[in-house]
Amino acid sequence: MFAALDNTSDEFRSKLEKFYRQIDPSKLLNIDAIVNKHNTRQDALFKFLAKKYNVSLTNIFNTTPSALPLSSSSSSSSSNGTHITSSNNLNNVPAIQYIPTIQDKLNFSGSHFDPLYALLHVPEATLSLPRPRVRPLDYLAKCRVLLPTSDPNYKNIKLDTSKEAYLANARAKEIRLARKQADHIARHAPTSLRNLPYRLAMNPSFQKGPMSLLRKCYVEKRKIKIHVRFYTNTQGILIGYLKAFDKHMNLVLFDCIEEKQVVVGMEWSPRQKDIDSARLEGNTMLSSKATRRFIKKPIYEKRKRHLKQLMLRGDNIVLICMAP
Question: Which of 38, 84, 206, 259 could join 211 via S-S bond, C-beta 3.0 to 4.6 A?
Answer without folding.
Answer: 206
